[in-house]
Amino acid sequence: MIRTMRAAILAIGSELLGTDRLDTNSLALTESLERHGVELVAKQVVGDSVSRIATTLRNLIADVDLLLVTGGLGPTSDDVTREAVAQATGRGLGEDPTIVENIRRKFASFGREMPEVNRRQAMVIDGAEVIENPRGTAPGLVLSLAEATVFLFPGVPRELARMIEHRLESWLTENADGAPQSRLTLRVACLPESEVEELLAPVYAEFGEVGLLASPGDIRIRLRSADPEELARAARAVESCLGDSVYGRGDETLEEVVGRQLRERGLTLATAESCTGGWIAQRLTAVPGSSDYFLGAIVAYDDRVKIEQLGVPPETLASHGAVSRQVVEAMAEGAAERLQADWAVAVSGVAGPGGGSDEKPVGTVDVALARGDEGTDYRRLQLPGDRRTIRWLTTQWALDLIRRRLAEGAD
Questions:
Q1: Is the CATH number of domain 182-249 3.40.250.10?
Q2: pLDDT tens digits, residue range 206-217?
C-alpha cells in the first residue's frame, strides 16, 4: 500500500506571533496540497530566531515528506530563514553572482540603485535549486534532502502565489501520490452556529468531511471529498437541510449575490441608514459594476436629517422614537421616493454601548425594505455583541432580507 505524502507548513516571522498580521500564506499552500491529495499534518509559526527556526525545521523534516516554508527571505537582518535552514541541514551558504545581477536589474528598471543589503537575497544554500521570483527580489529555493523536500518561499502573498503556480504545482503533479481532494464551501447568513449544527445532523451522518467556520452573521460550511460526485451530493444535502438560508458558494459575498439578483431583475436600490452610518452602501458599492443597480444612500444619523432628507414626519419621531417600525418604514419609503429607486432598505437601531432602555435595549434594530408596489417589509432584530458587531450584523440582516425578497420574485 502506497503511503500518502505527508506535508507541513512553517511560517516564519515574529510579526505573525502578534495580533496585527494573519498568516494567509498557509491557506494558499493548503489549497494546493489538497488539490494533489497531500496530507497536511502540521502548521507552525516561528519568530525570527535562527536557533528556534533550525530546531523546528529539524523536527518537521524528520516527520514529513514535504516541508513548505514561507517568510524570512527579505534583505534585512531579521530575515534569517536561509541561515536557519543551512544550520539545520548542515549545508553551506554562499552568494550567487547571477542573482545579485538580477536584483540590480530589477532595481534599475525602476530607476533606482540596488541597496547593498539586498545582496542577502542572493545567498543560496549549497545544492539548492533557485526558484525565480518575477514579482519581487527574493528568489525561492528548493532543497532535496534524504528525509524530505524543502521549499523556501518569500512571505509576500502575491510573490508566493506566482511561485505556487509555476513551481510547486508542477512538483506536486510529478511527485504527489494521493487522491486529489476537491473542496466546496457553502455560505449561510443570519443563522446561529448551533442551529446550523443541528440542522446538518443528517449530513454529518452520511458524509464525513464536513466542517463549519462561523463568524458573526455568516457561516461557511466546508465540504471536502476525493469524489466529485460525492461532493455534489453532500452540497445538495446541505442545501436540502438549510433551504434558502444558503446564499452562496465559495468566496461569494452576500453583497455580490444581492447585486447579481438586482441586475438580473433590472431593479435599482437605495439605502437609508442611521446606526450603520453608510456601511450597507459601502458593502454594496465594493462590488465592481454596482453602479448598474445602486443609486445612492442617505445617512440619516440625526433626527433632523431623517425629517429633512427622508421626509419622516416629526410627529412620528416624537410619538414612536427613532428606533421604531413607523420611523424605519418612513425612512425606506422616503429613500425610494427621493432617490427614485425601485427598492430601498432602511435601518435604525441602538448599537451601544449606551443609549439602551428597558423597552429598547442595546442591540435593538429595526429594518424596513420598501419594494414599491409590492409593499414594505419590516423586521425587528435583537442583536448580540459590541457596537461593531451589532452594526455589522445589521448590514448582514438587511442584505439578507433583500436577497430573500429578490429570490421570491425570481421564483
A1: no
A2: 987 888 989 999
Instruction: Specify which residues 365 forms β-bridges with.
Output: 349, 381
Q: How much is the pLDDT for 59?
A: 97
CA pair distance 99, 138, nearest whole angstrom? 9
Residues across the chain? 411
**Neighbouring C-beta atoms of residue 327, cutoff 10 Å:** 26
Q: Where are the domains of the chain?
A: 6-175, 182-249, 254-410
CA distance 223 to 212: 9
**Could you give the CA distance from residue 324 to residue 309 in angstroms, rounded to a whole number?**
18
Mean pLDDT of the region 32-53: 94
How much is the pTM? 0.74
What single-letter DSSP state applies at residue 234?
H
Task: List pLDDT tens digits, range 293-338.
Answer: 999 999 999 999 999 999 999 999 999 999 999 999 999 999 999 9
Residue tagged 516564519 (cell numbers)? 12
CATH code: domain 6-175 is 3.40.980.10
**Dist CA 167 CA 129 (whole Å):** 11
Q: CA 201, CA 205: separation in Å to the nearest integer?
A: 6
Q: What's domain 254-410's architecture?
A: Alpha-Beta Complex (3.90)
| CA–CA gap between residue 203 and residue 221 (Å, rounded) | 11
Dihedral (CA of 39, 31, 29, 46) sign: negative
